[in-house]
Amino acid sequence: MGVAMFRPFHGMALGAAALLASASAWAEGGREIPVWPLTAAPTLDGSWQEWPALGAGSPTPIETFPEDSGDEPEAAETAEAAEGKSSAKARRAPRESSLKEWTPQTELLAGVFQGRLYLTVRWRDDAKDDVYKPWQKNGGAFRKGRRKDDMLAVRFPIGGDFHACMISGATYQTDLWLWSAGRSDKAGVADDMIHRYSTKPLEPAVVYERKGQPVYIQKAFDAGQAGWEFTPNPGSSPEEILPGVKLAAASPSGSRGHVQAKGEWKEGGWTVEMARALAVADDPEDVVFPPGGKLPAQIAVFNAGYKMRKEFSRPFLLDFSRIP
Q1: 98-101: Cβ within 8 A, 24+ apart
Q2: Pairing of the two strands 309-313 and 294-303
Q3: Is the dihedral of CA 48, 50, 56, 58 positive or negative?
Q4: Domain that holds residue 48
Q5: Which of 280, 259, 160 is nearest to 217 (CA)?
Q6: Is 4 within the bounds of a domain?
Q7: Chain segment 99-110, per-residue pLDDT in tens
């Protein structure tokens, strides 16, 4: 389904020249994004319209770059991580695609109110993919379908030598928030995770080969309840297709449920709002946001359906200098 109604925050399409960040800026940590002191908490409903009235300035356009679908670790392995699977088989390194058929026109706003960070990310996506691996009848038996949902990932360094590339060979850890249209959105959260990257063996881990050297990426959900879960095989049913995901009986809790999030697809694009306390006490591996300071971050957006496509940003700096 194609929709040509998407309008960025600024009300106009963003050209490549307007988005381009210089190599020197990237080397210094990327462009800076102001974190605004807000006069009230935004309603987490996947809409950005109230932000200007709450004291937020102009949104910042974020340039993103494509990777080949199906081979890059963040997209291809997220489902395996969610289902508790891993792979010891070396996979080839992702390549940047020369095709730019999908230009997300991504923009970001950030603000703080009463000790909570609020993020809103908006990007173009002509199709709303909010179904994840439904049960489909095939020859009289139900099998998991291949459809995947749109996603947004935001990651923050929490240790080691942070690098824009996940398979650079650098050793580091990130706190990662993963919003998924067909899974976590049902529970009003983004799954809180920790990702570890190393050239030394990690277990369990997905293994990639980079210039003949293995790179291990370990992904784990934080402790607690997600608020959503996979549905069991329905066995017998007159229906041809049944949901693969449902709300869990238990509400989101613990470290995994720290990040509130809600998305809305409208007029050919997604808007996702996230919120979390600047600091949390029950998980030392959760990032601490520094009032008055700056913190690197990076985002990736995923255009799903039957074939996953990922666009990732260069690292940028969240500037908390306006926050006392």
Answers
A1: 99/66, 100/66
A2: antiparallel
A3: positive
A4: 32-319
A5: 160
A6: no
A7: 345 567 899 999
